[in-house]
Amino acid sequence: MEKREATVEKILIVDDDRAIGELVSDALADEGYETILCRDGAAAQEAVRQNPDVSLILLDIMMPRMNGLELCRRIRDVVSCPIIFVTAKSKTIDTLLGLEMGADDYIAKPFVVEELVARVKAHLRRENRSSHVDQEPDCLAVGDIRLYAKSYEVFLKGERVELTPREFQLLEYFMRNQGNVLTREQIFNGVWGMNYGDIGTVTVNIKNLRKKIDPDSRYIKTVWGVGYKFVKPTEDLDEA
To answer: Exposed e or buried b for every residue in 6-42, given b needs 16+ CB within 10 A?
Structure first.
């Protein structure tokens, strides 16, 4: 029987600094990943078009022709893979904008290459775990929300809702833990699967998720001083 070769995960690196881009590319190639290196946003957008199966994107913010924030906004509905900002801009506003546009994480320059590689591996492990859901119920239903794990679809009152991959994973984590009070640390470790990074991503992603499926806070309740709880709306319980 012919042995099937394992699929090599493909990582897109977008950075206008040639030295940094090549350093990151070489480090990831040494770990067995296939890398694609682009030096501006426009070239990266074309690379995404040609490589829709890319496994992860490392994205700088300050670039010519198209900055990283704009690129993230344009491609987020096209690719479902993790997007990590690698940027010298550490202002809170840039970080929040990136996360609200669908980025999953960020790492600030200057960075330790080993930490960046570890961050990449952690995100890819999380994505691989999320893709193996055969042992879990495919459909989760709470109130008017229906989540289909295998097809990566969410419906609210019968209407499909477009979520980013991280928002989908966050909602799935909430629904599988319905009724339990969850701290931000529990949510961060359960959804992002890492013990490092910016825990503020939890708050930003919950805010984005609420806008799309729960603007009246009927499902996602804030437990002040503790964390969050996902519940079935009270009116639904009264009707039951």
So the answer is: eeebbbbbbbbbeebbeebbebbeeeebebbbbbbbe
Length of the chain in residues, anyone? 240
**What pTM, to 2 d.p., does this model score?**
0.61
Determine the Cα–Cα distance for residues 12 and 27; give it in Å rounded to an integer: 13
88: CB partners within 8 A, 6+ apart: 62, 108, 109
Q: Which residues contact 26 (CB under 8 A, 6 or more apart)?
A: none
Residue type, 34: E
Asked if residue 188 lies in contact with residue 171, where contact means CB atoms within 8 angstroms, the answer is: no
By the 8 A CB rule, do 81 and 101 touch? no
37 DSSP β-pair partners:
13
If the chain, 240 residues long, is cut into consecutive pieces of 10 residues, what is the mean pLDDT of each piece?
59 93 94 94 92 91 86 85 80 66 81 89 76 59 89 89 89 93 90 69 91 94 94 63
Q: Rounded to an integer, what distance in angstroms lies between the CA atom of residue 174 and that of residue 122?
A: 21
Backbone angles phi, psi at 171, to 5 degrees: -60, -45
